[in-house]
Amino acid sequence: MTDELSHFNDEQRAHMVDVTKKSETQRRAIAETTLHMEEATLTRIKEGQIDKGDVLAVAQVAGIMATKKTSELIPMCHPIMTTKVNIMFTDDGKDHLTIIAEVVTIGKTGVEMEALTAVSVTALTVYDMCKAIDKKIVIENTHLVEKTGGKSGKFRFDK
Asked: Is 77 annotated as a binding residue?
């Protein structure tokens, strides 16, 4: 792994990295985040008893939409044509809801930022839909789990 930062030009100012000469390859990234909440909140989410509606369905759509907008939110991100976005939920049956996003593309640059944006906006949407009943929700442990494709190859987050 190199420690060279490629988002700076010769004058040490930010610029978008030139990917013109890179080959198009299949690139895939998986990211996750966890929400810690009151046990009653998670129960109400799972039982569809939140007044604003189906929290997980709305959050899932928000995450997919956010994936498509990543280059508008993160200044040096290239716009990417995603070919797959899948957002999944798991929970511990008590007070933790984990959000996992898988993003795939065929392109010249990776989709790590898209996967991280997906889980972040999905989590924020869960928070927004539940804040009236649980203001102590904590969004934690947001990270890249895995990426494949591109020049740097495979990465796997080892806990």
From this structure: yes
